[in-house]
Amino acid sequence: MSVKIHTIALLLLSVYLCCQLSAARRASRRRPCCVQVTSRNMSAEVVGETYREQAAGSPCVKAIIFHTNDGPLCADPIAQWVMDRKLC
């Protein structure tokens, strides 16, 4: 093969690898999502007044995410304690 073909092949390989690394970095920066929720009353575990709503989208399920000392708590948005907590 000629030098020109080698150069083009290396350039294409570099572009491909760069795109793959960029996609991997974007994927690693995404927030983890809830794949299951609890309807059990966990209000005593919740720290602070803030929460985040998560929409359903595979593999994530619809959830309300509260903060606890042990990390995020994925709660069922239609659980009564969650609706009460959101109104506060």
UniProtKB/TrEMBL annotation:
Transit peptide as UniProt keyword: no
Which keywords are on file for this protein? Answer: Cytokine, Signal
Q: Name one Pfam family in it.
A: IL8
Checking Gene3D superfamilies in the record gives: 2.40.50.40
Which InterPro entries does the protein's record reference? Chemokine_IL8-like_dom (IPR001811), Interleukin_8-like_sf (IPR036048)
Domain named Chemokine interleukin-8-like is located at 30-87
Name the domain of life this protein comes from. Answer: Eukaryota
Signal sequence bounds? 1-24
Task: Name any GO cellular component annotation.
Answer: extracellular space
Protein name per UniProt = Chemokine interleukin-8-like domain-containing protein
Task: List the source organism.
Answer: Oreochromis niloticus
